[in-house]
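>> received
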Amino acid sequence: MPANKRYGFGFRAQIPEGAEESRIIPFVLSTLDRDRHGTVLNQDNWNIDNYRLNPVVAYQHTLSGGLCTDPDPDYIIGKSISIGVEGLGIDRRLVASAQFEPSDINPLAEKVFRKVLFGSLSRSSVGFLEIGQGKYGTGEEAEGRSEETYYFAGQELLEWSVVNIPSNPQAGKRDIAMRRMREEGFTALMYAYRELGGRFTLSQIESYSVRDIFDLLDGKDLEIRERNPEKIRAMLAENTALKDQVARLQAVLRMK
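>> returned
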C-alpha cells in the first residue's frame, strides 16, 4: 500500500463530570478492530512523538484549506492534553483527551464542543502515515478474498479530528473524496454568488462553465443584465479590450 496519509476511526468516550467547566473530553482514537476500509492498525506500534510537539485537534481533518477554501485557524478546535496507548491484548487502543478552545477565541470550537456534549457529534478520526511494511491476512482475509484485511506494521500519528461521519459502510475512499469535492464545489458556488452580489441565481451560476465564472468575477463591477453565457462572454471581452486600450493610452501619456 502506498505511503501516503491515511485515516482510521474512533469514538468519544464517556463524558466525565465537570466537562462543562474543564472543556476536556476523552476519545478512543483507534482500536484493534477491523475498520470499514478493511484495515487493522497496529496498536503496539504507534509513533506519536512528533504529534506531541504539536498536539492539535482539528475538525473534519481541515488544517490547511482545501480545493476552494483558504486555511482557517478556527478549524483547529483544541489540543490533546494527554495521548497514549492503553489496555492489553485485544483491548489495546490509542486514546486521547481533547481540551476544546474557549468560545471567545473560536466559535466553531464552541459549537463542536456543544454538539459533542449533546451527542450529535461523537466520532473521531486519526490521520496517519504508514510505518514499515504491513501484510494481508490469510484465508478469507487474504488479498482479493471476501474479507480482505490489511494489517499495518505501524503508524505515525499526524493529527486527529472530530468528524461528522467517520466512514460509510457502503463506500470506499473514492466516495469520501467525491463527497469532499462536492462540498468544496458548493463552497466555491456560494463564494461566486456572494462576490457577484446576488445578481445571478445559484442555478444560473451552476449552468456556467468555470471559465465563465472566472470571467464574471473579473468583470464583477460591470452592470450585467444579460444571462446568456455567450453574450456575457462577448461583453466581458469587449470590456477587457477597452481596459487594455485605456491602459495603453495612459502609458503613452506618462511617457510624454
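>> The radius of gyration is 25 Å.
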